Amino acid sequence: MHVLPDAGHFPHRDHPGQFAQILHDFVAATDPATYHRSTWRAMLRQGQPVMDPEPPPGPGAVTVAG
Question: Radius of gyration of the chain from Cα atoms?
Answer without folding.
Answer: 19
